[in-house]
């Protein structure tokens, strides 16, 4: 496999693309699918070309597979300058966060931006610390918004002819909940989003529990943006 499988335009094989149903099950923030899907873009140096490809977890996590592939396919040790963008269905676990930090510290001219659809076992303290360490090492971690979903749909999905603008939409509430929880992680606050995973056909429950520390620490505009919290209204 070479990087050339992911050329940005004129790809007649659509090899890099995933099927619309795969995009929906992997990236819908309400679905808690076990496997991870990674869609990635690499822009080398001053080139305007963007290389795109996709990866999954195998016996190793998708992030580890990317790092291994990237490292093994680079023959020289000359410093490379490139910008990498990941669209990950799950945020990195603490072990991957550690490997990513080592990767970016070995390649100081590489910038990495990670968009995630969901937070992976976000109640786990090690995973929370892993994300904090990752962010403080200079890696950008953000929750995927509508614009990222549409971008991935156009560039990574084998949509039917004429369906370019038909990116599946999930209610923005879920993106907001995960964004709020990521805020809590960054600020070292206790989790405010509780997810009870349903078994088989049972429903998965998403519950927002805000404590005083959340109200005191999270900027009010972030809380209000969720639409779940009402500003005070005076009534005489
Ligand atoms: Zn991992």
In short:
With 236 residues, the chain is an alpha/beta fold.
Overview of the molecule:
There is one protein chain. This protein has 236 residues and is α/β, with parallel strands linked by helices. It has 2 domains: 12-169, Cytidine Deaminase, domain 2 (3-Layer(aba) Sandwich); 171-236, no CATH class. The protein is 34% helix and 19% strand. It has 8 helices and 7 strands. The strands form 2 sheets. The protein has a 5-stranded mixed sheet, sandwiched between helices. It has a two-stranded antiparallel ribbon with strand order 6-7. A hairpin with a 6-residue loop joins strand 1 (37-44) and strand 2. Helix 3 packs parallel to helix 4 (125-136). The protein is globular and about 65 Å long. It binds zinc ion (ZN). Zinc ion binds next to helix 3.
From the spread of the alpha carbons, the general shape counts as globular
Arrangement of strands in the largest sheet: 2-1-3-4-5
Q: Averaging pLDDT over every residue, what do you get?
A: 87
Number of beta strands = 7
Percentage of residues assigned to helices = 25-40%
> How is the CATH topology of the largest domain named?
Cytidine Deaminase, domain 2
Which architecture name of the largest domain does CATH use? 3-Layer(aba) Sandwich
> How far do the termini sit from each other?
70 Å
What composes the largest sheet?
5 strands, mixed
How many domains in all? 2
Our count of helices gives: 8
Q: Helix/strand-derived class?
A: alpha/beta
Q: Please provide the ordered H/E string of secondary-structure elements.
A: HEEHEHEHEHHEEHH
Low-confidence stretches: 1-9
Name the bound molecules: zinc ion
CATH class value of the largest domain: Alpha Beta
Measured on Cα atoms, how large is the radius of gyration?
19 Å
CATH fourth-tier homologous superfamily of the largest domain: Cytidine Deaminase, domain 2
Strand content: 15-25%
């Amino acid at each position: 496999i070479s990087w050339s499988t992911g050329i940005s335009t004129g790809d007649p094989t659509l090899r890099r693309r995933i099927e619309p149903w795969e995009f929906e099950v992997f990236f819908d923030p309400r679905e808690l699918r076990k496997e991870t899907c990674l869609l990635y873009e690499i822009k080398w140096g001053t080139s305007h070309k963007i290389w795109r490809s996709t990866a999954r977890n195998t016996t190793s996590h998708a992030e580890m597979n990317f790092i291994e592939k990237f490292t093994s396919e680079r023959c020289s040790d000359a410093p490379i300058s490139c910008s990498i963008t990941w669209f990950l269905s799950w945020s990195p676990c603490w072990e991957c966060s550690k490997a990513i930090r080592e990767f970016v510290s070995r390649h100081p001219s590489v910038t990495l931006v990670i968009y995630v659809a969901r937070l992976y076992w976000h109640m786990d303290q090690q995973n929370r610390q892993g994300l904090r360490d990752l962010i403080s090492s200079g890696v950008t971690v953000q929750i995927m918004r509508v614009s990222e979903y549409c971008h991935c749909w156009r560039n990574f999905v084998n949509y039917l002819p004429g369906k370019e603008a038909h990116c599946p939409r999930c209610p923005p509430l879920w993106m907001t909940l995960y964004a709020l929880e990521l805020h809590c992680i960054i600020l070292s606050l206790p989790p405010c989003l509780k997810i009870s995973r349903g078994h088989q056909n049972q429903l998965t429950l998403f519950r927002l529990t805000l404590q005083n520390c959340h109200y005191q620490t999270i900027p009010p505009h972030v809380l209000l943006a969720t639409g779940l919290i009402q500003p005070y209204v005076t009534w005489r």
